[in-house]
Amino acid sequence: MQPYTATSKPSSLMIRNQIIGHIILKKNRNLLKFKKGTAKEKRIKK
Fold it and tell me: What's the number of CA atoms in the CB half-sphere (13 Å) around residue 17?
């Protein structure tokens, strides 16, 4: 068996990286929304 490298299957590797990047982006956006929401709540409580 040949050792698995990025050159052996570039398409599948790129697709996987794109999916992972998309998931991370979604999580970061949700975190930003959550942080903004909590900041607004804190201001209202004060």
Answer: 7
